[in-house]
Task: structure prediction
Amino acid sequence: MMKRSVIDILDLTLEEIEGLLDTAQDIIANPDKYARACARKKLATLFFEPSTRTRLSFEAAMYELGGSVLSVTDAASSSAAKGESVADTAKTVSCYADIIAMRHPKEGAALVAAHSAAIPVINAGDGGHCHPTQTMADLLTIRREKGAFSDLTIGLCGDLKFGRTVHSLINAMARYPGNRFVLISPEELKLPSYVKKDVLAKNGIPYTQTTSLEKAMPELDVLYMTRVQRERFFNEEDYLRLKDSYILDMQKLRTAKPDLCVMHPLPRVNEIAVEVDDDPRACYFKQVLNGKYMRMALILKLLEVEV
Ligand code: NCD
Result:
């Protein structure tokens, strides 16, 4: 069996993404059909960086497929603390498990693991680089809320420099026709030029950059809020100065479209006032649930389990 890993959302073709979305929706409709699909299979979650949703969602996904889970939840408690390389860890875990989900603070770590592992590796976030399974959760949310992936004006707001979820979502949505991006960030946290050049400019995708959420609001179909990524800053003073650059509240939503889809990969710090949670446009907790179904679909695909 050729093992297949997912490091970047672009590792999946549009047809494969469509297939995963369909499987996720079938799981939602018929959960019992999938309850034993991964019996006797093991998922290893190797998380060398903090996480609540992503790790628990992978683990819940595997349990709901009838499989089981082995877990490293903290670099300090693993042999990484003794200086073991990612490659050796991946080879070792291949002896115990059938599939790996890995989060690591270094960009490229999941790719290194995939090269050494004998089993599929899923990137659950590598530094400020990418986070494909969050994007899969985002895509299922957009499909369920907006009905399509094309002709949308998508606002991305906050830390566009270090926010890996933003980089992966742009890569994903840039493949569908008619989308435009509004990039809303402080000067210091603008989208990296490699994403602007290699993804947006290269494919002729329209985008604008602004520092004002208020100005952008009326035109948006999707608003993707993000947390300022404290752990990627070199300097705490810069973080403190920038952390509350954008706070979405009901006042700011007054000029928004009635069918705006407000998203956030979570965790939120201050970016969205709690009062927004009761607005029907708030979709961020739906994203959490959608993430579990998409991870179930991805595990089935990479383990080549037919249901
Ligand atoms: C995101 C991440 O880890 O990049 N969280 C998540 O997986 N849902 C976003 C963040 O940490 O800000």
